[in-house]
Write a structure and sequence with these properties.
Elements (H helix, E strand, L loop, with lengths): L2 H67 L1 H12 L4 H19 L5 E8 L4 E5 L12 H7 L4 E4 L7 E8 L6 E9 L2 H4 L3 H6 L3 E5 L5 E4 L11 H4 L5 E4 L2 E7 L8 E7 H5 L3 H44 L14 H41 L2 H18 L2 H16 L6 E3 H19 L3 E7 L7 E3 L4 H12 L6 E10 L2 E8 L6 H12 L7 H14 L4 E7 L3 E9 L11
Parallel strand pairs: 12-14
Antiparallel strand pairs: 1-2, 1-5, 3-4, 4-5, 6-7, 6-10, 8-9, 9-10, 11-13, 14-15, 15-17, 16-17
Helix pairs in contact: 1-9, 9-10, 10-16, 11-12, 12-13, 15-16
Length: 572
């Protein structure tokens, strides 16, 4: 997969993840806020309905309290308890009590009947239908046991009327004289829940302290016990009749009734669905816009990289002239700048290699020039040596033989010899020099035998030894000392040539280094030849160092890594 596609896919994935998280986060926040507000709204609504119930309950309670404390009611019920009333007296008594009851019953359409029963069972009633028998739901024992408290019950005659009973106590002796019996229409309380039912297809239950349903929009449940899964729940959500409901229970009313409100969860959340759809569509829109924008931006961003790739391909085919246009200062721009710098360095390196090859050829030419046609000279020296021995001049014979061996070593066609062979050439050269300088030169060798079989370029040490004699020791008035050492240290082969000649200044040493680095220079030919051949054969890992002090001497050190050298066994 190309980098551009990877970037587009990565950006698209990140944008999609962010869009989904934003959409889901917004939806959940909105849902939670909506749920809290809905819950608060339902709580307030139930509180209002409960207050309305409390108002109706208080109304019934006020009616019954006014009746039970009425002095006429108290007097007539005492007379009933005494007995021995004539028919006329009973008729007058009934009118007096009914007139009082009529003041409460006739102006309240929700009261079906309002009755006062004497202790002996005598009934005084005001009814909507005088031909119907008064509904009674409580026994005298239940009423007496309540001791003046109001009793509430739903009728089981199919009309779901509500029956309320309350004992009438003698205000003097506080003993029961009779009781009040009130029968109300079911709408007296049932209509109060209609407003809340119209908002949702919910269920409302008003239960008494025995959990019997007193009022409900579910007509089949009135008079029945409310199911336990509704009554006993540890959270606000239940599953009832295969439907999930949100449950809210208000505090108990003054008559120990409790309002329980069940709303289907689906209806509560149906108003969240449009926002959920909006969130999904908004997230998708953001994702598509982000993907399109990332695609366009990625293409624009990748254009310099594609140009860089084409240029690098051209470089791979040998065209080093291609360069990248720098259009930005970011990492891609910096990469293009680095590429241009690399291409320039490659061009410079190629030029340096060409120049190095030319310098190597020049060094070889100079080396050949130094050989001075060794075949002819070797043959001539061989003739001189034969003639000297014929004449009995052994010194001439030895020196011509040494010079012949020295020249012979320069004839090597492969350009490489062992360290032992190079040291033999040095000894021949110094043997000749001893005839020239006599005792003026003292020579010392310090050679580690481990170095003898390593192969090095031919004629590598002789120019340095020659410089030590002619530029260091010869200008001295007194005798000089020359030391030739070779050893192995830190995985490198070292050659150290020291003399105690006239030495050089720091400036002179720096000039020698400069001359070694100049390809066209004709100065310092001997040491420059050694320096260039070391560099050509072994690169920058080999070193040639010069240390010198005026009137103290000079030391030249050569170091070559062992891993770059071959080693011959027993000279083969």
């Amino acid at each position: 997969m190309r980098l551009q596609k990877k970037l587009i896919l990565t950006c698209s994935a990140l944008i999609a993840a962010v869009g989904i998280m934003i959409g889901m986060g917004s939806f959940f926040v909105y849902s939670e806020i909506y749920e809290k507000r809905t819950d608060q709204y339902i709580v307030n609504l139930i509180r209002q309905i409960t207050n309305n119930y409390e108002h109706n309950i208080a109304m019934i309670e006020d009616i019954t309290f006014d009746i039970l404390k009425n002095s006429i009611i108290q007097e007539e019920l005492r007379r009933c308890e005494i007995g021995n009333l004539t028919s006329y007296e009973k008729n007058v008594q009934g009118k007096r009590i009914k007139n009082i009851l009529a003041n409460y019953a006739l102006f309240n359409s929700d009261i079906i009947s309002l009755s006062v029963f004497a202790k002996d069972g005598t009934e005084f009633s005001i009814k909507k239908n005088i031909f119907e028998e008064t509904l009674q739901m409580f026994t005298w024992e239940e009423i007496v046991t309540a001791n003046g408290s109001m009793l509430w019950k739903v009728s089981d005659d199919g009309k779901d009327s509500i029956c309320i009973a309350r004992a009438i106590l003698d205000l003097v002796t506080m003993k029961p004289l009779g009781y009040i019996n009130v029968v109300c229409e079911k709408e007296f309380f049932g209509s109060l829940i209609q407003d809340i039912v119209d908002i949702y297809s919910s269920r409302v239950y008003v239960v008494n302290e025995e959990n019997e349903v007193m009022c409900s929009n579910d007509g089949n449940s009135i008079g029945e016990l409310l199911p336990e899964e509704v009554l006993y729940t540890n959270n606000n959500y239940i599953t009832f009749e295969k439907t999930s409901f949100y449950v809210n229970r208000d505090k108990a009313m003054s008559n120990n009734w409790t309002l329980i409100y069940l709303v289907p969860v689906d209806e509560l959340r149906k108003e969240v669905v449009p926002f959920m759809i909006f969130s999904i569509l908004f997230s998708l829109g953001c994702i598509l816009s982000g993907v399109l924008a990332s695609s366009l931006y990625t293409r624009r961003m990748m254009s310099p990289l594609e140009e860089l790739s084409k240029n690098m391909e051209a470089v791979g085919k040998g065209d080093f002239t291609k360069r990248v246009r720098i259009t930005s200062d970011d990492e891609i721009g910096q990469l293009g700048e680095r590429y241009n710098q690399m291409a320039d360095k490659i061009m410079n390196l190629i030029e340096r290699v060409y120049k190095m090859e030319i310098a190597q050829k020049q060094a070889e030419i100079e080396f050949l020039r130094m050989q001075i046609n060794p075949h002819f000279l070797y043959n001539t020296l061989d003739t001189i040596s034969w003639m000297a021995r014929s004449e009995g001049n052994e010194n001439i014979a030895q020196i011509t033989t040494a010079l012949g061996d020295l020249l012979r070593s320069t004839i090597k066609q492969d350009g490489y010899i062992t360290v032992a062979q190079e040291l033999d050439s040095i000894r021949n050269y110094l043997f000749i020099q001893k005839f020239l300088f006599g005792e003026k030169i003292k020579i010392e060798y310090a050679i580690d035998e481990r170095v003898l079989n390593y192969v090095i370029p031919n004629f590598l040490l002789q120019p340095i030894v020659e410089n030590a004699i002619y530029h260091g020791i010869e200008p001295k008035m007194e005798a000089g000392f020359l030391k030739i050492a070779s050893y192995i240290k830190d995985e490198k082969l070292y050659f150290v040539i020291s003399d105690d000649g006239i030495g050089m200044t720091k400036k002179q040493v720096e000039n020698i280094y400069d001359e070694c680095k100049r390809l066209q220079s004709k100065n310092c030919i001997g040491i420059k030849n050694v320096y260039r051949r070391l560099y050509n054969y072994y690169g920058e890992e080999s070193t040639l160092e010069i240390q010198s002090r005026v009137n103290v001497g000079t030391t030249v050190s050569i170091a070559i890594p062992l891993r770059l050298l071959e080693k011959r066994v027993n000279g083969f």
